[in-house]
Amino acid sequence: MHLLRFPVGQACLWDDVDGLTLVDAGPPGSGRAIADAVTALGHGPAAVRRVVLTHFHEDHAGGAAELAALTGAEVLAHAADAAVLRRDVPAPEPVLEEWERPLHAAALRHLPVRDVEPPSAITELADGDVLPFGGGARVVHVPGHTDGSIALHPPGHGVLFTGDTVAASPVDGSVMPGVFNLDRSRTVAALHRLAALDADVACFGHGTPVTEKASAVLREAADRHRPAR
């Protein structure tokens, strides 16, 4: 597994013997950089079999169409966010808490301003689907950050990809619910659902991954953030 970092956000590249899976695709303009990273790891671009998007935000999905065109990879997303990615419905704006507003403005300044074409085709996912990488990666629907946010859990490897449902603080590395949510209370509830899974490693959309005892770390974070009653 390889972590690819961008000015905002990051992606994970999973290397199976029969091909590569990319979890998220970086901001607009990242497709070529990702293809170059794949080449530097000793693979041809066509080795990228699929790009699984944890949600529609452009710092995670902006590079998907370009990378799919370069590699022929299948693009997958939850049905609720696939509609946004295809532009069938407008992208809902996050409901920002007051302390999030300067952080959100700073993040936007790091994103390129460009109109990006959507992927030519998107395979829609649902909760409980199992994807053919990592010995079988289960799709976990965790709405809150967006309506179609998902996590991915290949249990045989003890790895959990949380997308932006969970993040690691850039200040002290502490694990917390993600920011810039459509519904923070649902995001907190989603954190609790993910904390109940068995994982040694947790990879986030933002922040340094947890590389051991991830389930315990997520449970501690969940204990600090109780769902609304």
Report what the structure shows.
α1 (31-40) packs across α3 (64-71). The strands form 4 sheets. This protein has a 6-stranded mixed beta sheet. The protein contains 7 helices and 13 strands. The model has no long low-confidence stretch (mean pLDDT 94). The N and C termini lie far apart (38 Å). A hairpin with an 8-residue loop joins β8 and β9. With 229 residues, it is of the alpha/beta class. The chain has helices at residues 31-40, 58-61, 64-71, 79-85, 101-109, 184-195, 214-224; strands spanning 2-5, 10-16, 19-23, 48-52, 74-78, 123-125, 130-131, 137-141, 150-153, 159-163, 166-168, 175-177, 201-204. The longest helix has 12 residues, at 184-195.
Question: What is the strand and helix layout of this fold?
Answer:
Blueprint: E1 2-5, E2 10-16, E3 19-23, H1 31-40, E4 48-52, H2 58-61, H3 64-71, E5 74-78, H4 79-85, H5 101-109, E6 123-125, E7 130-131, E8 137-141, E9 150-153, E10 159-163, E11 166-168, E12 175-177, H6 184-195, E13 201-204, H7 214-224
Parallel strand pairs: 3-4, 4-5, 5-6, 10-13
Antiparallel strand pairs: 1-2, 2-3, 7-8, 8-9, 11-12
Helix pairs in contact: 1-3, 6-7
